[in-house]
Amino acid sequence: MEMPNGKTKKGLVAKVVFIFCILVLILVASGIFQQYMRRKELDTEVAGLKAELIRLNMAKGDFLKSIDAFSGDFFLEQEARLKFNMKKEGEKVVVIPLDDHGNPVGAVSPQSSASVSGGAFENFKDWWKYFFGQTS
C-alpha cells in the first residue's frame, strides 16, 4: 500500500517504532542516571556517617577514661579536701588568706621582692620554721 505522498505504510510504522524506541531509550538512560546520582549521594552520606561514628567512638573512649579517673582514689581524696575540708591523718593544713584581688595577704610583689632583706631566702626560712619548727 502506498500513501498519497509516495511513502509506504511499513515505512511509516518503522519510523514510529524507531521514535518510540528512542523515547524508551531516553527514559531508561535518565532512570539509570538518576540512580547513579542517588548512589553517589548515598555513598557520600555513608562516608560522613562513618567519620561521625569514628568521632563518637573516640568521644566515648574519652568519656569512659574520665569516668575511671573520677572514680579513682586520687579524685575522691581531692574532692574530700576541696568540698568537705577534710585532711589525711598526719597532714598539716595551711590556710593562706587572700585579699580582694586573689593575692595572698602580706605577699611581697615581684617588683618589691628585691628591696626586702633576704628576699626569697627569708621566705624559705620562714616556711621551714613553720613546718619543721627548727631555727637555723
What does this structure look like?
The chain is mainly α and about 140 residues long. The protein has two domains: about 1-90; about 95-135, no CATH class. The chain has three helices and no strands. The longest helix has about 60 residues, at about 10-70. The N and C termini lie far apart (about 135 Å). About 0% of the residues are buried.
Biggest beta sheet summary? none
Q: What's the β-strand tally? A: 0
Strand content bin:
under 5%
**Assembly classification:** single chain
Helix share, percent: 55-70%
Keywords:
136 residues; mainly alpha; 3 helices; rod-shaped
Short description:
With 136 residues, this protein is an all-alpha fold. It has helices spanning 9-70, 73-84, 120-132.
Give the helices and strands, then pairings.
Elements lengths: L8 H62 L2 H12 L35 H13 L4
